[in-house]
Here is the input.
Amino acid sequence: MEEKIITKATEMFLKLGFKSVTMDDIAGQMGISKKTIYKYFINKEVLIEEATETMHKQLHVKIETIMSQNHNPIRENFEIRKMFKSMFQTADTSPLYQLKKHYPQIHEKTMCRELEDCFLFLRQNIDRGIYLGLYRKDLDIENAIKFYYMLIFQVNENTISEKETQELELAILEYHTRAIATQKGVEELERNLANL
Here is the structure.
């Protein structure tokens, strides 16, 4: 039952917002009593922490699946963007924006965890891109990663509309790729942009 509650709560938080979804709403959607939810979760904040942990795990399983498909690194970034877009397409407002605004402590904890994992992913992506001649060899890799994630997280944390967030994320991905790409990489970027 605990897993079912987390799954339903995660789905509702993403669609309707962390603030607006109540324990009553979750119980009503599941056809159970609110008392049943409180048997597993002492309060809504604990349930939100569990839901964000679940989202984190789901995201990283999906990212690892995409990485295992052996796309070139530029295509891989577009595939990951597509996965994020489909995951959050029902949300009207950016989930990270909601979390930061209404539950700043949970947001901070979530961001620390995300940054560590995302740094490792992007490092692998850039290393492979250099090896394949898509990214420049003279890159300051650490700063390229920091710049990219600073832009992505700033947009997610400060843009209310999920639609606008996704448009800005695409612009950031293009900007990042052009900044680090070789001519061969720019040509691959152009192909991916043309296929959107």
